[in-house]
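Much of our argument rests on the idea that a fold can be written as discrete symbols. The record that follows shows the chain in one-letter code together with its fold in token form.
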Amino acid sequence: MAKAATKKAVKSAKKGVKPGRRVAAAKPIKAVKAAAPAKKPATVKATVISKDELRLQLEKAQATNATLRVKSREATRAAKESAAQIAELEAKVAQLEKKLSSQEKPTTSSAPISDKPAKPRGRRTAVKAEPGESIEAAEPVPAVSETPGE
């Protein structure tokens, strides 16, 4: 009869479930295990060091500490000197940039270049050419020879 009761329970569970859904399976109960006794760490015996050895280690550590302090002071001093030098160079760069920018302003704001052609220089400029004529078309000035006998 026990088998018949379980079949009815499953059928009634299936009737209440919407189509497309699965019936939740019964989860098996896990057996809880008893906690294992805590293991104690193995005891380690410290090696016995004599007072003389401890004094030597202390002196060595103090000497190392002193040398590290000296090195730290030197490094700090060098860092401060470098920072001062960097600040000085930055100030110099800023001054030079300011000087450069002040020099560039007059050249860009100078009077505009006139449209007049530049005057030619040399012997041919002595010839008075009319504004419409080219310099090459004008006659050159005869050279005066100062040779005696002509």
Summary: The helical segments are 2-15, 51-108.
